[in-house]
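Hi,

I'm pasting everything inline rather than attaching a file, because the server keeps stripping attachments. The sequence lines come first, and each chain or strand is labelled.
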Amino acid sequence: MNAFSGKNAKELENYHAQLKQKYDEYKSNNLKYDMSRGKPCKDQLDLTNELLDCLSSSDILKASDGTDCRNYGLLDGIPEAKELFSQMLGVSTKEIIIGGNSSLNIMYDTISRAITHGVLGSEIPWGKLPKVKFICPSPGYDRHFAICEFFGIEMIVVDMKEDGPDMDRVEELVASDESIKGIWCVPKYSNPDGIIYSDEVVDRFAALKPKAKDFRIFWDNAYCVHDLTDEPEELKNILEACKKAGNPNMVFIFASTSKISFPGAGISFFAASEENINYNKKHMFFQTIGHDKLNQLRHVKYFKNIDGIRKQMRKQASILKPKFDAVLDILQKELAGKNIAWWNSPKGGYFISLNTLDGCAAKVVKMAADAGVVLTKAGATFPYGKDPRDRNIRIAPTFPPMEELKTAIEILCICVQLASIETIIGK
Amino acid sequence: MNAFSGKNAKELENYHAQLKQKYDEYKSNNLKYDMSRGKPCKDQLDLTNELLDCLSSSDILKASDGTDCRNYGLLDGIPEAKELFSQMLGVSTKEIIIGGNSSLNIMYDTISRAITHGVLGSEIPWGKLPKVKFICPSPGYDRHFAICEFFGIEMIVVDMKEDGPDMDRVEELVASDESIKGIWCVPKYSNPDGIIYSDEVVDRFAALKPKAKDFRIFWDNAYCVHDLTDEPEELKNILEACKKAGNPNMVFIFASTSKISFPGAGISFFAASEENINYNKKHMFFQTIGHDKLNQLRHVKYFKNIDGIRKQMRKQASILKPKFDAVLDILQKELAGKNIAWWNSPKGGYFISLNTLDGCAAKVVKMAADAGVVLTKAGATFPYGKDPRDRNIRIAPTFPPMEELKTAIEILCICVQLASIETIIGK
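And the predicted assembly:
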């Protein structure tokens, strides 16, 4: 089907003029809406406020092993935090390390140490090799790609399909190129597509036969419990799958409470085989004596158990679901059937991924910005910030209040249509 | 003077037998005292408990610039934390970054980034050079040396004098060897000697003319406000001195509240010239979106202002001073005038540094351990864990309760004497 099928050039010109008028009206309102990042909104943050009250000077400030959480010690976290969050990740308490307030920080540190020292099984540090490459299923998470770029790791784009990365291509690449040392994955509600990797994809990951013996899957399970529906799809357990496939050490798992409790003051997690954990702890020793144990204790007291986390996530969903629905409704109303835009309807996570006609995304993002709506930079979801087809726009519906969000998406839909018409009629 | 001057071999044998009897008595008590690390004791931690109560769900959780401290953002910290702690360090608010709960972590990260990317002014990353060396005034802090060892940085020992490192040697080394990229300093109440660098030493540091253009002074001002007396000596401001000497970018300053508030849940600081700060922030961007801002807010609300910090440190001193005095009294009583041991009487910090006869330290530490008193490993205060004269023992008086401490030091004094006699008479 052609874009705007049924409309001829003249009709498109007229429609463009109508849209332009609407656009200019919005523009004259001097809006300042920021939809650039996947930030929780105030109502979401308020959900967790009692976290601030659940640890006071009258409490026992000791971990279950007797360690005074105020003092130095426990490099890998307090036992009760390992207990609770290992359940969330489906690993054992020996397969988890509790970190600081940011899983991004753990990911960065993991790569940084791989560069300077290698990972378990590395013959030499990655930084001593002539070339290190990572596979980057795209669109993906800009911060992952930024870490690679910072360390000079060459990124190889692999397409995302409906059930995860193009595994034929992934298998072929890792089997043939020893310089490929890793792959970035957001396996549940992928950033930005909202895809859940199928069991088959997980199993194919676990069964990879990389040429590089120290190849690692960087499994950023950022949205592991971030469901928007009551019947979430399950993600197959990658660590178990890797063990079954005889590759127990091939995966590094990352997660945090950033979008469960507080983005600025949560706790983060690293999970992997016991061998990987022990190896990494030996390296971590040089970096810190231990992360903030009082905040770990606070989180355990607040959530109590895995049901506490699930309950919290249902509250989060009750705020987020209407926002996702509002965005999807407007996209449907304004763009559906025009063959100029395609989007997903995610069952969780933080983003809606919108694809325009080829060559339109950067223009749309600029037009929206000119009208006061700041979106994620076009291209940000691809390595080096370069979307080869210039078509992907990441919509982050969580932060703006509902009315702002609706207006912003209406403006976005106008911009998409304007840019599409201009592309079609060569304006 | 000879050791045990006045005592002949026979008398020493007898005295050894007496001491051995006492030692065996202590040994039979199956003590378990840990004096291995400079950890605050429970009473010290209790001083800060109200920190846990000063931020609750009913508070405004915004930083002074309006940022919601619960959410993402503010890579370099909240403005009011910069305001307060820049005063503590004697720098401007543009010359400080607020970190996570550990200054060790900032130091590690700073070196790690220097290895992978270099520092401001580096022509190539340090890790790409055939050799990188650091000057390590010794005795010093084992964790500093451990970072160097982890990154394969060669350590050059320089002696500590009464007013700081041997600056003749430091000047000579940095001026002649381009591979020397840094020097570790604990300029106030140095770990373990308790030395305060004199104004002259600070000025000579500031005026260094290193052959390496990207040479840095790693100024770990861990004990900047950790005075034990009411009239503390002042440490000259290194950043100001560096500016005056035309070397504004030559120093990196580190500090934390680990021994002001809680070791496990404090906040840490990095201070340097604005140029260094801006350069480092660009690198930090890849690692994190920002550190725990609620804990920063908590600290500012708790201390309120620089006087609040000073008041807190007087309370800390009221707990620590009697412990330092007790150690010094026992050392004086048991070891003075025997020419077998020398120690400092620090006016602040966390340690008392004890030097034995050459070749005795490892033996003393082992004997003490056998009697149930765990001291810092002998040699730990030197690079590679090797004390060339095997004589330095780091006493950490803060953690044990007073009675344990006294017993432990009595045992230590017996061990020092036993080992000394054995050395003298060749037993």
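The domain at 9-45+310-424 of chain A is CATH 3.90.1150.10 (Aspartate Aminotransferase, domain 1).

If the labels don't parse on your end, tell me and I'll reformat.
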